[in-house]
From TrEMBL, chain A:
This is Sister chromatid cohesion protein DCC1. GO terms for biological process: DNA replication; maintenance of mitotic sister chromatid cohesion. It holds the Pfam family Dcc1. Belongs to the DCC1 family. It comes from Nothobranchius furzeri (Turquoise killifish). Keywords: DNA replication. PANTHER family: SISTER CHROMATID COHESION PROTEIN DCC1 (PTHR13395:SF6), SISTER CHROMATID COHESION PROTEIN DCC1-RELATED (PTHR13395). One of its GO terms (cellular component) is chromatin.
TrEMBL record, chain B:
GO terms for molecular function: DNA binding. It comes from Nothobranchius furzeri. Keywords: Cell cycle, DNA replication, DNA-binding, Nucleus. It is found in: Nucleus. This is Chromosome transmission fidelity factor 8. It comes from the Eukaryota. Belongs to the CTF8 family. Its main location: nucleus. GO terms for biological process: DNA replication; mitotic sister chromatid cohesion. The gene is CHTF8.
């Protein structure tokens, strides 16, 4: 076999040498190794075979980790690592791309060799398109929607069974949400979801506020510092009213847990508590007189906490143009995820927006390396009103 | 919803590296017999590392370029009849040989000056 190989190589050598001569290439200028490229027997167009990877994804793959492509029939597919989500698009090139497994680069070849050496390399496949993942914000709106199908609203009344339907395990969520596991986990914390018997569900808003009120009222009646709320005592005092797990869940949502001399305490988060209580007040009114609201709001928060309108960025809209000034609920998390739909809705609610106000409601739309300025240039038209720059819709919108 | 897993490797090792050869235009077999099994051409390197490709009657000079973003080649994993689809990255491509210059024809018969 070896001699056959050698004679084959010799033939090839002669062929190659003849080609070099005709091509006017000087053997002395060349590396002695020649790759003879041929198409493999099973070669075929390898469209949809190549996937471009950024640095992070490449390191993932080299470390042996996995990526997951997720998508429903009517959704565009996304690629997820353990903690990031990418949009998957196909990029086309006018060039032909050939993949060659056995081909070496100059630095991998020996330079000192007497005779020409022929290496046979087979082309495995060829294509002129490839998958191009682009980092994008994960689609998490669906997560809250799923978890609010059957939220926990307290212990059911006597005689009624708590429905366990429409509650999802982490596995269920991974099969339905186009996001990475870590992004889903972080969002579960953000939306105050709770886990009951291994299944995740949302917390009914009124019930959440009931829990928060219990906690803040207890803090006031015991004259505790809101930075040092004892877990044990809170559980004992509130246990007759609500399940212990729920009280602890509320403390986890609105405070930071720490241990002092072996005892567990919570430092309530001022901004979160104030925001929660503001939402409770605004929930049932379309608009509130701003001044009246601010008075009631300050009175409702625990002793020592200060309310500030900045705490409500992204959840309320203040109308300073009306007389008297008003405030109403507008949560960015309730707005459409699609950029065009979002802008249409915002301009339906209010014809002209200041840059500061509208930025709050479009910040989350920005993809990687995208600015709110770029979005405004594309989807809105700016003008000056009383010397202040305002934005309105590019198209006529019914208000 | 569909979930397709792309595994980094089966045995925990980094996938092998292949080379990409990028050409302008199309590749057609001489007798229109399809490309499979046919010779494509010869690849040589100059001592300076410049890749040279001889395809048919043409000679092309190219460049070795490190890819800004590497490519992965996921291939369907052989899973012995299990229903879930999964892929494994069979190779990574971090460099390419790109031939962008106009191919020079190799003239075999140069008429002598009379």
């Amino acid at each position: 076999l070896a001699s056959l190989q050698r004679s084959f190589n010799n033939c090839k050598n002669k062929e190659v040498q003849a080609t070099l001569q005709i091509a006017k290439l000087n053997e002395e200028d060349l590396n002695p190794t020649i790759h003879c490229l041929s198409f493999g027997e099973n070669v075929s167009s390898a469209d949809y075979c190549l996937m471009e990877l950024d640095d992070t994804l490449c390191k993932h793959i080299e470390a042996g980790q996995s990526l997951v492509i997720r998508g429903d029939k009517d959704e565009r597919a996304v690629l997820c690592s353990c903690d990031k989500t990418y949009d998957l698009r196909i990029a086309n090139t006018s060039n032909l791309l050939l993949f060659v497994p056995g081909c070496k680069t100059p630095d991998q070849l020996p330079i000192t060799q007497d005779r020409a050496c022929v290496v046979h390399a087979e082309i495995w496949g060829f294509c002129n398109s490839y998958w191009e993942p682009r980092k994008q914000r994960p689609k998490l709106k669906k997560l809250k929607k799923l978890l609010m199908e059957n939220p926990y609203a307290g212990v059911p009344l006597a005689g009624q069974e708590e429905s366990k339907e429409n509650r999802y395990t982490m596995q269920d969520l991974l099969e339905r949400i186009q996001a990475s596991e870590e992004e889903i986990k972080n969002h579960l914390v953000t939306i105050h979801a709770c886990q009951i018997d291994g299944c995740w569900c949302g917390l009914d808003f009124d019930y959440e506020m009931k829990l928060l009120s219990h906690v803040t009222q207890l803090v006031d009646s015991e004259s505790w510092s809101f930075n040092k709320v004892p877990l044990q005592t809170s559980l004992e005092e509130l246990a007759p009213l609500e399940p212990r797990e729920m009280i602890e869940h509320c403390l986890n949502c609105y405070g930071r847990r720490y241990t002092d001399k072996g005892e567990v305490f919570y430092a309530l988060h001022e901004d979160k508590v104030c925001r929660g209580l503001a939402l409770m007040l605004l929930q049932n009114a379309v608009k509130f007189n701003l001044k009246e609201f601010q008075e009631v709001w300050q009175q409702s928060v625990p002793e020592g906490m200060s309310t500030r309108l900045e705490q409500l960025k992204g959840v309320v809209l203040v109308d300073r143009a009306s007389s008297p000034e008003t405030i109403s609920l507008l949560k960015v998390e309730d707005l459409p995820e699609d950029t065009l739909e979002r802008f249409n809705l915002l301009f339906t609610l209010r014809e002209k927006w200041t840059e500061e106000d509208i930025t709050t409601y479009i910040q989350d739309l920005c993809g990687e390396k995208q600015t709110t300025g770029a979005l405004l240039t594309k989807f809105a038209r700016s003008s000056l009103q009383n010397g202040i720059k305002v934005f309105n819709s590019r198209r006529p919108v019914a208000t | 919803m569909v979930q397709i897993v792309i595994r980094g490797s089966v045995d925990g090792c980094s996938p092998p590296q292949w080379l990409l050869v990028e050409l302008q235009g199309e590749m057609v077999s001489r007798h229109n017999s399809g490309l499979a099994g046919n010779v494509m051409g010869d690849l040589l390197y100059t001592k300076e590392g410049v890749p040279v490709l001889i395809v048919g009657h043409h000679i092309l000079y190219g460049k070795l370029v490190k890819l800004e973003k590497p490519f992965a080649i996921p291939m369907e994993t052989d899973h012995q009849g299990l229903t879930s689809t999964s892929y494994t990255v069979s190779a990574l491509i971090k460099q390419k040989l790109i031939f962008k210059t106009r191919p020079k024809p190799i003239i075999t018969n140069v008429p002598k000056k009379v």
